[in-house]
Design goal:
about 375 residues, alpha+beta, 10-stranded mixed sheet, 8-stranded mixed sheet, 7 helices, 20 strands
């Protein structure tokens, strides 16, 4: 499949038109590893620490999570789909993101990964039991690869609405009244991480966990220096999976940007958003539809200022789709919706943000003044 020439009148691949101006050029990053250690099957859960588990549980229920288990020191959250929990919050002195856990396709993958990285397979305190290998990515972020002994059973789904389309009348003599209630989370979809060492971190996820790139973004006028953002999916061969399970972007910070959770449909996003607004939570950005990934989205801040996304109707790609390449810009984040907010972009100046930028510019990493100015230009374009 070639992306080197684009016929705008007759797009030949899913990455043309809105999704990228063109594919890779000769010598650019291929977007996958030739011989990864393992291939993870999915994102399992995210791990946080927070000082107030009661407050965290209230928000979790309002956002649409179900509770798996609650102890004095831990809160495990899940969606309605069968599988693993999708978040664990442990009691700590401050609010912080610990790291992601990815699901191994087979139990033997943990042994292979442990041998290749000099790590150890250990039991973990997961409801239902399980084992994991603990790693550090090049940013210094803890990453687990896990295998769960038992799957959680599915829970009742939020009712999907019956819609009328043009002359296709599926609902007659009945009104449409989606209830004002939490958007019932189905599953964890993806996590977005910021890193000062983008190229090294990206290659680590491809080489170690066998993930593959769906789309690259680059800075205007700096494509020759390589991409600055990658939307990365799991490789399950011919089985189509989420456009991105992990997204990485270059920046002055390190760690969590946001995480995304699938809900039933647009009405679940809208009614659930009204429910959150009525309870005083802060919307960060939405409702709209993305370009890379195509998801319907709505972003919110929890009481600890972490950003979480409700999404529905995302793209699904199999392994044979090559990466797309597109310029990075704020206007390129959505096909439709309200203008992107400064809160979503993390563009509001603060002493902490300025210290973060100065520390990054003085450090041994990939962020230099030209890259920083390019990022600032992209986020205002």
């Amino acid at each position: 499949m070639s992306h080197t020439s684009v016929n705008r009148a007759a797009p030949q691949t899913p990455h043309q038109d809105l999704h990228s101006e063109q594919g890779c050029l000769r010598g650019e990053h291929p977007g996958r590893s030739r011989n990864p250690v393992i291939k993870v099957a999915d994102l399992a859960w995210l791990e946080f620490e927070k000082p107030d588990l009661d407050r965290a549980e209230v928000f979790a229920r309002d956002f649409g999570f179900a509770i798996v288990a609650r102890t004095e020191g831990e809160l495990w959250l899940r969606g309605t789909f069968a599988g693993s929990p999708c978040m664990v919050i442990r009691k700590g002195r401050t609010s912080r993101f610990i790291g992601p856990a990815f699901r191994a396709a087979e139990r033997t993958d943990l042994d292979r990964l442990a041998r290749a990285t000099g790590s150890t397979v250990r039991d973990i305190g997961l409801p239902g039991g399980g084992q994991s290998v603990a790693l550090l990515d090049p940013s210094g972020l803890p990453v687990r690869v896990v295998h769960c002994a038992e799957q959680l059973p599915e829970l009742p789904e939020q009712q999907r609405l019956i819609l009328n389309f043009g002359t296709d009348h599926r609902r007659t003599n009945a009104t449409q009244r989606p209830p004002r209630e939490p958007s019932r989370i189905q599953r964890l979809g993806h996590v977005v991480l910021e890193t000062r060492v983008f190229a090294r971190t990206l290659d680590w996820y491809l080489d170690t966990l066998g993930m593959i790139v769906s789309d690259f973004l680059f800075l205007d006028g700096q494509r020759g220096r390589g991409p600055t953002m990658a939307f990365v999916r799991c490789d399950q061969g011919s089985v189509a999976v989420d456009h991105h399970t992990l997204a990485l972007h270059l920046g002055p910070g390190t760690g969590y940007v946001h995480s995304a959770y699938q809900v039933t449909d647009l009405d679940a996003i809208g009614a659930g958003g009204e429910y959150l607004a009525e309870r005083g939570y802060q919307r960060s950005w939405g409702i709209g539809r993305h370009i890379q990934g195509s998801q319907l989205f709505d972003y919110w801040r929890d009481p600890d200022h972490f950003m979480l996304e409700h999404f529905a109707d995302g793209d699904l790609f199999s392994c044979d789709l090559e990466p797309g390449w597109a310029p990075m810009s704020a206007s390129g984040l959505a096909q439709w919706g309200p203008p992107v907010t400064r809160d979503f972009l993390g563009a509001s100046p603060s002493p902490a943000k300025l210290r973060e930028v100065m520390t990054a510019l003085r450090g041994d990493n990939e962020l230099d003044p030209a890259r920083l100015l390019g990022l600032m230009k992209a986020m205002s374009s």
